[in-house]
């Protein structure tokens, strides 16, 4: 390389540096590289570790160890000093060396803290290499280990410390704990697999290939890492596809999941909507959008209605939709399709058959939904689940805790000795809220009540166990539809060794489906579109007739009247099981009231049959190590 070419390279880098400097000032950001000594103190560091010479990503070099000549660089290590300075001359010397026979051979010296590097020696080398877009640089690294805390960033970093010996790559860095285990699964590795040299090289090549479209779409402006974004992509596509896809197709695939990538910065990026139809679009929206007059709607279930009460309840909901909307809807039905490839094929068949709106009625089908949504963004896709942070797939469920509050009040009024049993299903989103609402309702009519909690996901005969303990009044599983009355259901009393049902909440999926389809017809679906990068979770209750209460014939009249008063109060908003609590707080509740005798079981205590749903919807799902057969969430 000639001196003239080196000068031209410096001029281009200088232009970029000064542009970045001005933009930083205008946006109120610090315009120079950060200084590690000004960021941390001794009390923040638990210790230091000399890593020797390793290859580090240049995009993770964010600052300098000491102040020194930091003002010679923009925040991105591009030069700021005039071309006739001594600094510029040395920069050009390194530039010529970089493209000469010898190259830049000496490693830089730097400190690493929380996955970011701060240069002690070699600032100009970093600047030259960054100007040429070099992805990595050799560095002698001192790792500064932060004091442990429960801060999410610290937790994620400590997970990185565990994963780094397996990967040997600094680029595999996430912002959320639990992500590395998901990456291992996505790559087909066992959790403790140590990557071979060939696997490291293959991953690094794919990572660099993915990074280009990620950055072009604005990834560098997001508070996430490239590895975070890649993991989202790998939930829909495979790593083998990443290696094989042409650049244009890769860019298209990244755009297909971009909304989900943008949703990552928030711990739970789910918008909870409670009104049944959403607000109507404004005048401009009505001008720009043509509302459909007919919809082709598909229903997909991994169970058969004749074998599953849950599947039957949703199929009755479909029939209700057809009865109410008549020839305004055409429906397709796919029952008994297994999650995975079979479900993906069913969704594709539905779409090819003209489906414009698809309901998948169980959480295990979320993986197939996400893949179909990425391929067909024009199709409205919904999954019957809660707290799924995917912008491409909306979710829907019911606030069953409202019914539990009323049943709890009934139980408190009928509890002769102040003892009530409660059989909970699984520790999934919404279940602790239902237990707590039941307890609050019981305390409303019996302040000294005690509730004995057992879990059907832990023991198969939880009801019998409560009966053996002398509990004569207990809450069992809710009935799915009011016409499917199988003793014992809901709140039961044990009389002469037999269970007599008294009251139970039930789902009305027909109203849910009718409201959602009408929201498409009237423009409410489009009006409800959340900000980009945020998901929509429909979570409806009694005010939208998504749930209701069934009362048994033997219920005393006074208690029946109480139930009616509470029901009307919940519908009009004058009665609230959780006053002043936001919907998201209620949905993610993971504690129980003091009057409840029992606790939420850990994953290890669950029966094998209960574990899959807890992996998908469990209140502690992010802390469960993934297994090969599970979808990556």
Largest sheet, order of strands side by side? 7-18-12-11-10-8-9
Count of beta strands: 20
Uncertain stretches of 5 or more adjacent residues: 277-288
Portion of residues within helices: 25-40%
Radius of gyration: 29 Å
Overall outline: elongated
Proportion in β-strands: 15-25%
| Major sheet description | 7 strands, parallel
Mean pLDDT: 88
How many alpha or pi helices? 23
Question: Which structural class do the helices and strands define?
Answer: alpha/beta
Distance between the termini: 50 Å
Task: Report what the structure shows.
With 633 residues, the protein is of the alpha/beta class. It contains 23 helices and 20 strands. The chain has a 7-stranded parallel β-sheet, sandwiched between helices.
Blueprint of the fold:
Elements: H1 3-26, E1 34-35, H2 36-39, E2 45-57, E3 61-64, H3 86-98, E4 108-113, E5 116-121, H4 123-131, E6 136-146, H5 152-167, H6 179-186, H7 197-216, H8 226-234, H9 239-244, H10 247-256, H11 258-262, E7 270-273, H12 283-288, E8 295-300, H13 309-325, E9 329-334, H14 341-352, E10 357-360, H15 366-375, E11 380-383, E12 394-398, H16 401-414, E13 419-424, H17 431-445, E14 450-455, H18 462-468, E15 473-475, E16 491-495, E17 498-507, H19 509-521, H20 524-527, E18 535-540, E19 547-551, H21 557-572, H22 583-587, E20 596-597, H23 611-617
Parallel strand pairs: 1-3, 3-5, 4-6, 7-18, 8-9, 8-10, 10-11, 11-12, 12-18, 13-14, 13-15, 14-20
Antiparallel strand pairs: 2-6, 4-5, 15-16, 16-17, 17-19
Helix pairs in contact: 1-3, 3-4, 7-8, 7-10, 13-19, 14-15, 16-17, 16-21
